[in-house]
Each structure stands twice: as C-alpha cells, then as structure tokens.
Amino acid sequence: GEEEIDDDVMELPFNERNAAKLGLKDNEWRGFPIEFLADLDNIRFRKRWNKARTRSRWYLRLPVVVNGVERGYADAQLFKPDEGPSYLNKKGAWSKKFALFPFDYTMRLMQETKLRTLVLVEGQRDALRLLRYGIPALAITGTNSWSRFKIRLLELAGVKRVILCMDGDVAGELATESMIPTLENGFRLHVIRLWVIAKKMDKKKIDPGDMPTGLVRRLKKLVYKDQGD
Fold it and tell me: Are 104 and 127 in contact (CB under 8 A)?
C-alpha cells in the first residue's frame, strides 16, 4: 500500500506521489514540473518543526551539491507565502564558499552542451527558470554571499564567459556593480541590467525568474553564441 505521511517522518523522497500527498497540484512546484526538478541532486521533501515542536511544515529541500558533496541547502516553502521568507537557508559559513545552486547539475549541462558560458542570477527559482530553457545558470543565493571562493569554483570548472543577470531592482543593481570588478579580469563578462530593460518596457521590475519568454530566448541566443569556445 501507499506510505502514510506520519508526524515522525522527517524526509520524503521527491516524486510525483509524495508531491500529490503534500498538496502540490498539476505535478508541479510553483510552476516547475516535478519531472524536471527530480533531476536535481539530492532534492527531497523535508519537515521542519518550530522550536517548541508544536507545529511543523513541509518544505522542498534544494541542496547545494558541489563536486558530489552536499555542502548546504535552502528549504523552500511548498507554496508561495503571503508573508515571510520563501527560503530558509542552512546557517553557517558554507554559503560564502559553496552556495551556487545547482552547481553539479549546471556543470553537467555545460559539459553536455560544450558551453563555457554561464549565467549568474540571484535566486534559486531564477536559475531553475533558465535551466528549463537549456541555459546554464547558477544562483548565488543572495547578494551578500558572493566571494572569491565562488569565483575559484567557476574557474576550476572551466567557465570562460560569465553573463551577469541580477534582479531588476535596487539590490540587483548594487550587486551587479559590486560584482563586476571581481569578474571582469578572470572571465569574459557580459552584463544584463534588467532594471534598465524594465524601464524601457514600462515595467516596475523584471527578474530572470519572471522575465518575458522573448527575453529568455534572446538570452539563450547570447549564451549559445559562444558554443564550443
């Protein structure tokens, strides 16, 4: 028979059956098909309790796997919250060194496509949106977690060209300007300023996770322009 979701169960495998049990409809999580997400490394459903252990909630655990080792994670709410954070990150210094999501998955895509170009974005859903279109992308998981350790990871992985595509808001603009000097010497750098594009399109804000499909296709052409380089 089917497994029951018991209060003592702390983790569940990520699959369509468990997704349905937890209330995810249409075989998807926030617009992403379960089948697509299932290819990510070590992804699973995880229950978190409050400190008093009087309440619990199921999350989607999005691990950061670097060279086969799970270095940390973000627990994402199963449904878009009305208020509060969508993600709860593992605490500790790991994020400064390794928080590039989903590292191993994206590196495999680059190998398969023979690309040396990578798109850097802010959040996990930004990266997933581009990856669905076959665009190698990594989320830096927060504008304050960029570091020389992450730059070294990209160098060691064979990345030659970086397309910087932060969110189209003030935080994204500030992150872009601070990251440019750290990237322009080690990589061929292309910068996309979504806040400028949003203004031209008379939109309040554009993020990689919700930018129009036409912009995603233009970005893909830009990425694949350097195929095999």
Answer: no
If DSSP codes are grouped into helix, strand and coil, which group holds residue 58?
A: strand
Total length of the chain: 229
Which amino acid would we find at residue 226?
D
| pLDDT 10s digits, 113-170 | 999 999 999 999 999 999 999 999 999 998 888 999 999 999 999 999 999 999 999 9
DSSP lists the bridge partners of residue 162 as: 118, 189
Q: Sorting pLDDT into bands at 50, 70 and 90, what band is 84?
A: confident
Task: Show the tokens assigned to 140.
Answer: 């830096």
Tokens 């309440």 -> residue: 55
Q: Which residues contact residue 84 at a Cβ distance below 8 angstroms, ignoring those fewer than 6 apart?
A: none
CA distance 228 to 1: 50
What pLDDT score was predicted for residue 8? 55
Kindly tell me the burial class for residue 141, based on how many C-beta atoms sit within 10 Å of its own C-beta (0-12, 13-18, 19 or more). Answer: buried
